[in-house]
Structures are given as C-alpha cells and as structure tokens.
Amino acid sequence: MTKRKFTLAGDTAFETVKTILAIFIALAITFCVLALTCENPVASFVTMLTGPLTKLRYFGNVLESMVPLVFSGLACSLLFRTGLFNLGIEGIYYIGGVICSYIACQVFGNSFTHPLVAILVPALIGGVLMLIPGYLKAKFNANELVTSLMLNSIYLGVGLWFIKTYLRATDYSSTASPLFTDTATLPYLIPGTRVTIGILLAVAAAFLIYILLFKTRLGYQIRMTGLNPSFARYSGMNAMSLFLLVHFISGFLGGVGTSVELLSIYSRFSWVALPGLGFNGALMAMMGKNNPIGVLVVAFGISYLQIGAEIMSRSTTVPVEVISIVTATLVLLISAQYFLRGWREKKLLKEGLLHV
Amino acid sequence: MSPPFSKKTISISQNHNTLICTACSAKGGISLENSILRLENITKVYSNGVVANKDISVNFQKGEIHSIVGENGAGKSTLMKILFGIEQPSAGKLYLRGEERRFHNSLEAIDAGIGMVHQHFMLIPSFTVAQSIVLGMEPRKNRVFLNKKAAVEQTRAIAEQYNFDIDVTKKISELSVGAKQKVEILKTLYRNAEIIILDEPTSVLTPQETEILFDELEKFRKLGHTILFISHKLGEVKQISDRITIMRNGESRGTFNNAEISMEELTARIIGRELISSYDEKKRDWPEKTPVLTVEGLCLAHKGQTRLEGISFAVKRGEIFGIAGVQGNGQDELIRAVAGLSGHTAGAIALDGTDISKLSIKKRREAGLAYVPEDRMLDGTAGEASLGDNIISTYFERKSLNGPLFMRGRRINAEARRLIKEFSIKAESPAQKIQSLSGGNIQKVVVAREHNTNPKCLLAEQPTHGIDIGSAEFIHLRLIEMRNAGAGLLLVSADLDEVMSLSDRLIVMYEGRIAAYFSGTKGLTRSELGYYMLGVKRQTPEEIGGALRD
C-alpha cells in the first residue's frame, strides 16, 4: 500500500477547490448584477462583503442568525444521510415554537430550569412528532417527503389554533403570544449583541452529531443505510428501528433549534406562517454535503452574506434580495456533479495517477 | 492449512511486441485497405481518477472475428463503450474506414454501422420479436402510423437472410435466453451493422446454445461482417477467433493471430502466470460429514406464479454443494429465502438442526450463516463508502471493534489492513472508496468479510461472476479452504466449469424445481448437465431425493 501523493484532484481537495471556485463565481455574478443596477457598485460590493466585520453588533447578528440554521441543517443532514428526504423540520419548528412559547409564558422555576424545560419539552415532543412520518415510512414505505410536507401544514393549522385559543395576548394588535417570562430567556454571551449561549449549543450539537455519525455504531448504520439500503439490509441492519431513531433525533434537534431561536431573539411568539427556517436547513445540509461540520460552516457563511446584504441595503438602493443570487448560484454550482469534472480528469491524466 | 503446491509461471518479456503480427500494427501498410476500424492511442480517464484505457492502438479488419481478452478491470468494456459512443476517449483517435470519427453517443455509432450486444439484454418483455427489432426505426404508414405488417415482413426477411430460426411474432417474455440474444443480434443487423460488438455473449448460454451462436458468427464473418468478441472464456476465444487482442491493466499487451499463440501463453499473458488445472488435490476430507443446512420442501409462489417447488437438499459440513442451472430458474429466490432477504410460502430451513426460517437476517447471521450475494454492487457493498466500512458491515458490532460508546477506528483500520493483506486486495488504504476498486477486488472484499465471520454455512452466489481469472482462482481456493475447515458451502453458479470443479455434490435447477442430483462430479460431462439445465431431461423423484438423503 502506498500513500497517494497530495493532489488538487484528490477527493477532499477537489471538493474544496470546487467550493471555493463556486463562491468566487457566485460573487462575480453578484457583482455584475450590482454593476448593472446600482449607482456605486464597488462600494456596495465592499460593504456587503466587509459590513458584518465593521461593528460587533453586526457580527453578533451573523452569529445569532446562524443558530436556527445550524439546528435545522443538522436535523436535515441526519435524515438525508439515512437516505430519507424529509422536509418536516419546518413543521417541527412551528409547533415546537408554539409549545416553547407556552412554557416560556408561564411563571416557573428559575433562570436555569425554566429555559431548560422550555427547550427540552418541545425537543421531546418534536422528536415524537417526527416519528409519524418515520413510522409511516418504516411500516408502509409511505413517501416521507409527501407525509412530512402534509404534516407541516397540519402543524401550522394546529399551532395557530392553539395560539389563538389559549395563548393570544389581549394587549397586542395582531395574533401573538403574551411576553415571555423573564426567567425563560437565554442569557447573553456577548454584551451589546443578542448572541446567547444558543450559539454554544449549536456548535456543541454539530460536534455531537459529527461524533454520532462517524464514531458510533448507530452512525455507521445510518451512513451504510443512506448509501445503500439493500446493502444495509443484507448485512443484517434493521431499517425500521433505524428510520424511527433517526426521525426522533432529527425532530429533537428541530425542537431545540426553534426553542433556542425563540428564547434568544424573540420576546413573544408571533409567527403566523411557517418561518422557513426548517426549509433553509435542507439547503444547509445539501451545501454542507450532509456533514455536521460542513453545516456549521455553511450556516455561518450564508448568515454572513445575508447580514452583509442587509447592511448594504440600508446604505444603498440595492434591495436585500440580491443575496438570493449568491445563494442560488452557490447551490447550483456546489450540487452540480459535472462542474469542473473535465478539469479534474485532465489533471489526473497529467499527474499520472495511473492505478487501474 | 493446505500444503504448498507448485505453480508454473511464465515470465513475460517486456518486448512482447515482437510477437505482434505486422498486419495489426497501425502503421503497417499492408492491410490498411482491409482495415475497417482503427484505434490510435486511445486513453480514457474516469472522473474518479481511474485510468481505464492507456494508449491503446488496435486495427480491426473487415471480415474477421477479433477477440478482446483480459481480466476484469483490464479495460475491455471501456474500450468497447468508446467504440460504441457511450464513453468519450480522453485522448486518441478513432478511424472508421480510414476516416477520423468521434461518436458522441451510441446513435452516431449505430448510424456508422456499429452494433453492440450487451451482456445484459436490453429488451422489453411485452414486445414481440418484430417490434423489438424495429424499435426506434419502425416502418411507417403515411409517415405517422406504425406499419406492423411491414415490420413483421422486414424482420422475417432479415432473419431468413441470415438463417436465423426464430418466430418474429412471439413475445420476448416467451423466449429462451439464447433466442433473446438472437433478437439482440438481429437488432444490430436490422440497423445495417457491419461491426458487431458482443460483450461476454456466452456467459448466459448453455453449451448447446453457445455452439449455435458460434455457427452464426462464422456465417457473419463469411458475409464480411467484423465481429468483436469480448470474453473471459479462453477456450471459446481460441475456438472462434481469427485474431486476439490481449489487454492488461488498461493497456494493450499485443494482438496475435490465433494460430500463433498457445492457450498457455494466452493465459500467462493475461494474468501473468498459469492457472491451477484442478482443485481436487486441494481438497481435504472433513471427519464428520453431518448436515449443517437442511432445506425441506421449500416452495415459493409470487403473484400466482410458482417460483420454487418442493426444493429439498442438505448441505453437509466440509462439503461444497453446488447448484447449477441457467440463471433465472429459481436459484436466486432459493438463496434469498435461505438468507432471509425474502420470504417463502412453505417448507423448512434449518441451520445446524434449529429452524431459522422465521428469524431475521441478523439472527440468521448470528446463528452462523454467511452470504456472498450475486450482485456485489447492489447487495454486497456500498460503493460510496470506504473499504474499511464495507469490510466490517456484517460484524460491525463485534466486541473487538467497539468500545462501550464508540467504534474503535484504529482497530477497524487494523482489521481492514489485515484482510487486505490476507486476501491480496489491491487497494491503497482502508479509507479508499470501494467503488474505485476493480470488480475482482471488490468481490475479494465481500468474500473476505464473509470469511471473517467464520460461518458454519456460507451461501456463495455466483462468487466469481464477471471478475478476472486471477481473483476468481483466489476466491475458489478460499472457498475450498473454508470447506476443508469444516464449513458447509452452498454454491450457486451459472458457470458450469466453476460448479463442476468446486462441488462435491450438486443439483441442477430448472424452472424452480430440482431437475437432477449428482452425488459426485466424476465422469459428469458439460453436455449431460446442459440437457438438465435446458429441461430436456429430468431425473425421477427417487434419484432427486438423494440430495437430502445422502
């Protein structure tokens, strides 16, 4: 056995080269759009790229907005890894948020136990709720994409009904819960920002899921089942219990994610539509190649660009939506299998990695 | 352990080119006007970095049967895919009738007069023979409507022209494997193919069907067609070829006139040494030949069709029990039922005296069953996963590989390294994706894994299907070693040579039933087995009962 010498065309290095190039292309396209539409494209572009670093508060914005994306990204990547295309985290974010808000509005315990309960209860319920599409998949081979999307609508309806019936603030003009009790909110981590210990939880969760996936027997079964279900079955692995377990963990992460988001940034629950954070999680998972650390990096990057675009839109005429161009281009190029393939083949040929 | 045995090796001289006849050199002027297809320095690199073809130059003549031989992973299939426009060469040129060409897809190749018969047929079961042949270029009425009558007439005419005995109004699903292959060949002829590529055409045929195919190929040659014959079976290659091109490690090792190269030399050039002629001397007797796997009265009905009927046999410790038969006669269903991957309607399956027919796959494995599946990419491995992950999948919960919470990566790596060495798997490291290995090496990973569970009974389903000769021999020796150590092996194979050389006892399956039982392979001939495989002959129930009784 000889160690393969390092080459840019190797597996990991190639993915990195591909991603960096994708970012460059995405930014170049954005610059072109800016050049065509705005008066001072260079300044706007620089503001977008460096804006979040100019003030601690801006950088805090980046960190706070990446937290819910990390959790939903992790939840999705776990499902995708198992070969399950389930988008139900969106619904869990909504219904979990309702449950979390209900607890957060009560007078209960102290500033440690209150948020703990307000996070754990929605997490457990989220896990149990995710078992529904998991069970339907494992038992009846029902398409988890369809069932999870339908459940999203159901959870939205049930959640809205609950808020309107039992948790509606009487002193507030639109549909929303009363203010959360002070003890429920999470403590701030960086003074002068809204960054709470939620960011620590998110990073910890990413590392835990990483260890789960790559160091444990459960993770091994998840990876093998996701890569080739027939092979996993042939090897004696039980897809039914695995599907259920993965769904539970994923729903649990969703419940934690939504609770941490609410208890960090919001003072009352006011979502009257699906928040979109769960769907964005699917994007994070995909761009992070279903790798927990990848999800962490992607969530940071996307949040950074998003905040940069917001800062830019405040000082220029460019709308914040321009960031969608960057995101869309990135998704396209990172997920495109054939992108740079020709270059790689030529490079491999030249480097003479002739192992047949 | 088996004693060492002498292996005769033939050293291969580097300047093998001296043996190449002048006619096949691309630059040799004599035959150029007779050349129909010429490859010049063809190189192909796949995106995973595998160089499948390297600098290959061959000259195919008009009206010859030209065999391409080599181990799996030698690059034969890739080369054919390039000829047929399925793959694009990374470098090199292709000349058709002296003119440089490049096929971007198979349609262009077909238009240029190249036809290909794939190893796995590309036919629609519900179509008739005539419909299948004209598919894609149907004769039309008023430019819009199908002209079924003309389709039948045209296909009948072409079948007659080439002396094919086939009823063009029959449905594909009613045809035998040999007849399906005829349809595939007719398809290429209907498209005016001058060059016909046959990829492992005899792998699915009985000896009798193979003879018929060879007669037809002779006819095509006389009519001026060029046949490219890809095969593992050197006996057939020697029997039918005019010229032979040998490939090894993605490179051409020369083109030879059939008459100028002996069988021994051919083998030696393909694998670098001679093969063991018989496995008999490797076999050792196990003292207690008690049954380890007993199958009694196994039946399976699926969607109203009987797939298995009254299958009874016993596999004993220290023996290889063979199942011969044309593929698709119930062997697959039988093995999957024993392994627990699919159910059965009636009957008992016992391992070591205890009934396992209700147990889960995992429980069956724990009871001492191991399984080398037919399709190594579908069931046997996860292609995207690393070699290390693949080589432990059936025993990943083993104590030695796990701590209380985590799997022990270092131990897994060490175990993988040990198996890589023990089974001489050609791989760079346990972290390598398994799909980047050659077929033979992937199969070795599967066998190594199943061997490592130390099973009481191993189900080996087509264990050497489509892999190179060297790896196949290696796997055969490993199976015999397991047998010598007291395991019971159930071997299913469509390759008669394999079943006959390995088995101690064997049965033949035909249409879901046991057609014959033989208590030994001494004096058994291929054609005798062929009759049972084709359903021409069938033994009495009394004779067949020996499979369980003996």
Describe this structure in words.
The complex is a heterodimer of chains A (356) and B (550). Chain A has 356 residues and is mostly helical. Helix content of chain A is 72%, strand content 0%. Chain A has two domains: 8-38 and 318-356, no CATH class; 55-314, ABC transporter involved in vitamin B12 uptake, BtuC. Chain A is globular and about 65 Å long. Residues 1-5 of chain A have low confidence and may be disordered. With 550 residues, chain B is of the alpha/beta class. In chain B, strands 6-9-10-3-11-12 form a six-stranded mixed β-sheet, sandwiched between helices. Helices cover 31% and strands 24% of the residues of chain B. Chain B folds into three domains: 1-113 and 194-269, P-loop containing nucleotide triphosphate hydrolases (Rossmann fold, 3-Layer(aba) Sandwich), CATH 3.40.50.300; 122-192, no CATH class; 286-368 and 455-549, Rossmann fold, CATH 3.40.50. Classes of the chains: A mainly alpha (356), B alpha/beta (550). The A-B interface holds A 1-4, 9, 11, 211, 215-217, 220-221, 223-224, 227-228, 230-238, 341, 344-346, 348-349, 353-356 and B 43, 45-47, 49-52, 54, 73-75, 90-91, 249-250, 339, 341, 360-362, 364-365, 371, 373, 378-385, 389, 393-394, 396-397, 402, 405-407, 409, 417, 420, 427-429, 433, 438.
Give me a quick take on this structure.
Chain A has helices spanning 11-37, 41-54, 56-81, 89-105, 113-140, 144-166, 198-215, 217-227, 229-234, 239-265, 277-287, 292-315, 323-335, 341-351.
